[in-house]
């Protein structure tokens, strides 16, 4: 059974958190509440999240400052952040959100269907990435065990084929996401986020191709996917 992804909801108003839970409950994932930036950072110390929905206007540490802390941490810097805000101060305010590392910036009131669709894309990418890491770990064990001939060789070939298929699915999702982000905004922050994801996938694809029978250069080390 595939483990559910965790989605972090950050807002200082309980009614807003309740509304987000109602909207996202259909995704059947684990929704984690945080009522402040400090509480969100504490949750991120121990759990892995597929995406963060972060309110901009909060007392104390606001959304921009919270995002800055998240992006400075090695463990959390690659988690997608969707900013939610009840105010709109124009393009400069929106740019500040993207500059802080957000992949999207949504003004309230927002369309629940649109928000759910955007979150579902990141959940899907996260889930497939987790599956890739599990397959990569199995493949490492197989290679370290010297499974290159006979039944071991066939098992390794099967793992390679399955891992390649899973990676292709993630690449397809990433391509669709890049296209969607490109259509929604030409902001540099969005482009950088999509480019980072593509680089990670490209590195994994090269390492996987190097493991294929007949590939030159010897055994490759599969990169860790964070």
TrEMBL record:
Coiled coil: 160-187
InterPro entries: Bact_response_regulator (IPR050595), CheY-like_superfamily (IPR011006), Sig_transdc_resp-reg_receiver (IPR001789)
UniProt entry keywords in alphabetical sequence: Coiled coil, Phosphoprotein
Gene3D superfamilies membership: 3.40.50.2300
Family annotation (Pfam families): Response_reg
Domain named Response regulatory: residues: 6-123
Record-linked PANTHER family: RESPONSE REGULATORY DOMAIN-CONTAINING PROTEIN, STRESS RESPONSE REGULATOR PROTEIN 1
Protein name (Swiss-Prot/TrEMBL): Response regulator
Organism expressing this protein natively: Streptomyces katrae
């Amino acid at each position: 059974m595939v483990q559910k992804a965790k989605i972090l909801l950050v807002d200082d108003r309980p009614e807003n958190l309740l509304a987000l839970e109602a909207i996202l409950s259909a995704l059947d994932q684990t929704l984690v509440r945080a009522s402040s930036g400090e509480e969100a950072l504490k949750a991120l110390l121990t759990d892995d999240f597929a995406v963060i929905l972060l309110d901009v206007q909060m007392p104390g540490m606001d959304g921009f400052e919270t995002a800055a802390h998240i992006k400075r941490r090695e463990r959390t810097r690659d988690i997608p952040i969707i900013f939610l805000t009840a105010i709109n101060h124009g393009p400069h305010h929106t740019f500040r959100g993207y500059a802080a590392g957000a992949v999207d910036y949504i003004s309230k009131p927002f369309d629940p269907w649109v928000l759910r669709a955007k979150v579902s894309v990141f959940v899907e990418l996260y889930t497939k990435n987790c599956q890739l890491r599990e397959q990569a770990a199995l493949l490492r064990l197989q290679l370290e065990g010297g499974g290159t001939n006979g039944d071991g060789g066939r098992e390794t070939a099967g793992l390679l084929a399955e891992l390649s298929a899973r990676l292709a699915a993630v690449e397809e999702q990433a391509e669709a996401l890049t296209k969607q982000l490109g259509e929604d905004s030409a902001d540099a922050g969005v482009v950088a986020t999509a480019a980072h994801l593509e680089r990670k996938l490209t590195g994994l694809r090269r390492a996987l191709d190097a493991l294929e029978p007949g590939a030159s250069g010897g055994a490759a080390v599969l990169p860790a996917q964070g």
